[in-house]
Amino acid sequence: MIEYYKTTVPEADPSGVASLRCVTQRIDAPEPGCWISVVSPDAEDRRWLQGKLGIEPEFLSASLDDEETSHIDYDEQTGQVLVIVDCPFVEDDKDSVDSSIIQYDTHPLSLIFLPEQDYLVTVSLKESETVNAFAQGKVRNLNTAMRTRMLLQMLLNISQRYLVCLRSINRQFRENERSLRKTMRNEELIKMLGFEKSLVYFSTSLKSTETTLNKIGYGRILNLYEEDRELLEDVSIEMTQAIEMCSIYANVLNETMDTFGNIINNNMNSTMRTLAILTLVLSIPNMVYGFYGMNTPLPMDGTWVFAFTLSVLATVGATIVLLHSRFVR
User: Fold this and answer.
1) pLDDT grade, residue 162 (50/70/90)?
2) Which backbone phi and psi does 264 adopt, to 5 degrees?
3) 230 in the same domain as 101
């Protein structure tokens, strides 16, 4: 699906003050200074991007690669710039039997600068909340003609979504931890594994995106104005906070999993110790009756009362000794 958006800048009134705010609307065909949004492109859309817009084949193939990591690239001949960043999203696990298990993953969002046509093209392989927010006009001070600023606004929106997802993971982790304290079922442990996977994906994506952000800040590939520098600082702060939160939550999760692992081992040891005691105690009557069942003469082997009484006394005595020994403490 391909859509076109352009920001209309109102003309100033005679007093020199603009009477209306900038409005970003959907248009029918691409125009200079517009933003072209491409979501889940099919084969025809891909041919249009390469044939009509003249996007470099290497840039297009990288944009359509779901496993592409965040980076920035520049083509000297055409002047085209490719920026790929990773966006968080909720993973739809159809194989999961528990719908309450929420896992997160990341997918690449590609931004291609076309200086000849004065276009900014975004390519997303799946629905993106960031792209939808910009298309629905939920972002303030949006101007499609200011391409570098729009890139930084998208990076700011993406970093804020990382923070929202990380807070959601932390909230679910606390709820699951309370459930684990009551009963250690497999469902809760599987949820913990899902949280750990999400944090690993986030950590990897955030580090690569931070590297891309630093390269943008050099100003060698994309020209940055003073207002862009201020916005870049805001993005850097949000990105750093997301990285720190991800690292803290990952450490807390690992420590918690280690603690619960030790608890499970202790419970297993306690269970095995109890079973060993029961096995030892219950083997005493078998030993007594085994002796009296042989053809060897034993005291009072003509009556079963003595053997029964002896086995009961030996069992009770062994139980008392074991209960007061260090073995069961």
Assistant:
1) very high
2) -60, -40
3) yes
